[in-house]
Design goal:
This protein is an all-alpha fold and 661 residues long. The protein contains 32 helices and no strands. The N and C termini lie far apart (67 Å).
């Protein structure tokens, strides 16, 4: 088989690409906007530290700098990250099987094959879609990449002539990995267990490699303080034995069984379970007892240095942080990204050993054939299922429809579906969905009280938006106030309330609503934009421009607002406030996200040039805007043509009325 092993990495890469490339052009959904589009570390050059997950946030920033907010670049990096993780899993498994404890049982050719098929199945597994196709879960997949790379480097160092290089690389990868996601804290412990079971007992291993293990554990300092703080707060809280840590851990029993079922039969998959707290019952007790016995058996096997305990320890240790520390949600499929390797490797190796036993090892060729056929069938089925799962990621509407079909009691999904229908312009369907969600009582949902109020406020805000669209501003105002009664810090509802008041000619009250948002954290750019807009419309350009500056400083990625501010600077009717040079600087900082943005940027740059008296430059820029717009088939270019005629006649463009919001 040695002459074929060179193709193994290529097959893993090809299979990973076939499984996940289908979703490269899909839009952002769900929390992608929070983790990427609303993440100030991504779009603001003024911030250099984003917290404990700075490595992934830095990768998001690089994506943004190279391609703006186009989802393709973000999704491409996710797919590449996953494929690289698969390659490191291949290397880790094959080298583990070649260690002294297993080398006699698995010859080199068999070890290479089992490492390959384990990585192949893991890479195409449908359960991985949430960690790969759901862009914001790069936190999970990148953590998995650094975890596997750390383990691979350590195991490779054991039998390498360049031990120092590989050990140092393992430590460096572990250190960087701590900046991806907090679960990475389990890596040093897992490596110590691998060393103990596969290489030398823990005493010998620590005596020979104590500096390496100490350095790996020293990387805990990057994230250990906040993680320990969460554990202590959860365990010592007064509600630990009623609604805190203990009930959370008990409720993880059915969740873990669900994860294991999905490892074998990955259907149906769900993005948002809103899993309820478990009711204590005999069934739960039995399920927990089985898991507990399996865990004890794994620990005992590891203590006795038996490799059979490694899959169980891998699964338990990596899943432990999200199974012990109380989190807002009990279950998410992305938490199985790395633990999934344990059941996959266990099944692939166990089937091989079973086939050997059935054939009595006298017909090795039959073992290869049967195992190869089984792996091919599983890989093809899983690959097709993964590609089909991508259909649910094609839009927020499709995903929420899928979640609601599976989790009828998921209020968050019902409201999400209503909002998706609203965004799609399906107003009546959105109204029915949002009104139905309001009929759900707090006692009939697994959401915590604070979560329930937040989700209910979003539903009411959505209904207010519908009233606003129908020009029913009084009814819209009532809805927005109801949402704020539930969640006073709901800035979106307060901004919408201001718009509803403004449409009723109650401008003073509207501006007071927006000013109220200025006193809240985190800083809100939309309220500043709205204040700036209406102050300019009232002729107060000095104060209006200051609010615009604040809005642009908070969200320099919002192309429309930035170009609007630059346009006002270049075309302000007040000569004292008109500043063509600053307008050109502001417009020049824009990173266009569409053809409309490109044309709009050229148009504003032309206005800025005319404001400076550079009419030749203004003519050239306006002509570029027109040429680009016509080439792309854009409509509404007559205004640019009129301005072009003015530039040619030596007249700057002066705006007498601020644009509508």
């Amino acid at each position: 088989m040695n002459r074929y092993t060179r193709w193994f990495p290529l097959v893993i890469m090809a299979a990973g690409w076939m499984a996940f490339s289908k979703g490269l052009h899909y839009p952002f959904i769900f929390d992608d906007s929070v983790a990427i589009e609303q993440n100030p570390f991504v779009y603001s050059s003024a911030l250099w530290w984003s917290g404990t997950r700075w490595v992934v946030d830095l990768s998001f920033r690089i994506n943004y700098l190279l391609g703006g907010y186009h989802p393709f670049g973000f999704r491409l990096v996710n797919v590449i990250t996953h494929i690289l993780a698969g390659l490191f899993l291949y290397g880790l498994v094959r080298r583990c099987l070649k260690q002294p404890a297993l080398a006699e049982r698995f010859p080199p050719g068999v070890a290479d094959w089992l490492g390959f098929v384990s990585a192949l199945v893991w890479v195409v597994h449908p359960l991985q879609t949430e960690s790969v196709t759901y862009v914001c879960q790069r936190y999970e997949s990148m953590m998995g990449l650094f975890f596997l790379a750390t383990g691979y480097s350590f195991i490779r160092a054991i039998q390498s002539r360049h031990q120092r290089l590989w050990f140092d690389l393992s430590i460096g990868l572990c250190l960087v990995g701590m900046g991806t996601k907090e679960v990475m804290v389990t890596a040093p412990l897992m490596i110590l267990i691998l060393d103990h079971v596969l290489v030398a007992n823990i005493r010998t291993g620590l005596r020979q490699r104590w500096k390496v293990h100490l350095a790996l554990m020293a990387t805990w300092g990057v994230v250990m303080v906040p993680v320990l703080g969460k554990i202590v707060r959860g365990v010592l809280s007064e509600s630990s034995f009623s609604t805190g840590t203990v009930p959370y851990m008990v409720s993880q029993v059915p969740v873990v069984w669900h994860y294991l079922r999905l490892s074998v039969v990955p259907y149906p998959l769900c993005l948002d379970y809103a899993w309820p707290m478990a009711d204590r019952s005999a069934g739960l007790l039995i399920a927990g007892l089985v898991l507990g016995l399996a865990g004890i058996a794994s620990v005992w096997a590891v203590v006795r240095r038996h490799p059979a305990g490694l899959p169980g320890m891998w699964f338990m240790i990596i899943l432990a942080p999200t199974s012990i520390i109380p989190l807002p949600d009990l279950a998410f499929e992305h938490r199985m990204y790395l633990p999934l390797a344990a059941p996959v490797v266990l099944v692939c190796v166990s089937v091989w050993m079973l086939l050997e036993r059935m054939t009595g090892r006298r017909r090795p060729g039959m073992v290869w054939i049967l195992h190869g056929v089984a792996i091919c069938l599983v890989t093809v089925v899983f690959l097709l299922m993964t590609r089909l799962r991508h259909d649910d990621y094609r839009s927020g509407l499709a995903m929420w429809e899928n979640v609601c079909a599976q989790r009828l009691d998921n209020l968050r999904a019902q409201v999400g579906l209503g909002q998706a229908l609203l965004d799609a312009g399906q107003n009546e369907a959105a109204r029915r969905q949002l009104e139905a969600s309001l009929a759900v009582d707090a006692d009939n949902t697994p959401l915590a009280p604070a979560q329930y109020r937040t989700v209910r406020a979003k539903a009411i805000n959505g209904l207010g938006t519908l009233e606003f669209r129908m020009d029913r501003y009084v009814e819209a105002e009532q809805r927005f106030r109801q949402a704020l009664d539930l969640v006073p810090e709901y800035t979106l509802a307060r901004n919408n309330l201001g718009l509803a008041l403004q449409q009723q000619n109650r401008v003073g009250e509207a501006m007071e609503a927006w000013r109220d948002n200025l006193r809240r954290e985190p800083p809100d750019d939309t309220s500043r934009y709205l204040l700036g807009l209406y102050l300019v419309r009232q002729g107060d350009c000095a104060d209006g421009f200051e609010y615009y500056r604040q809005a642009v400083a908070l969200r320099p990625d919002k192309v429309r607002v930035v170009l609007e501010y630059a346009r006002l600077l270049a075309t302000c009717a007040d000569p004292a406030m008109r500043d063509g040079k600053e307008a050109a600087r502001v417009a020049g900082s824009v990173r266009p996200r569409s053809v409309n943005d490109v044309v709009g940027r050229l148009d504003v740059l032309a206005m800025a040039a005319a404001a400076r008296g550079d009419f030749a430059g203004a003519v050239k820029l306006a002509q570029q805007a027109l040429a680009t717009g016509r080439e792309q088939g854009l409509q509404g270019l007559s205004a640019i043509e009129e301005r072009l005629a003015g530039y040619a006649a030596g007249r700057p463009y002066i705006e007498t009325v601020a644009p509508a919001p």
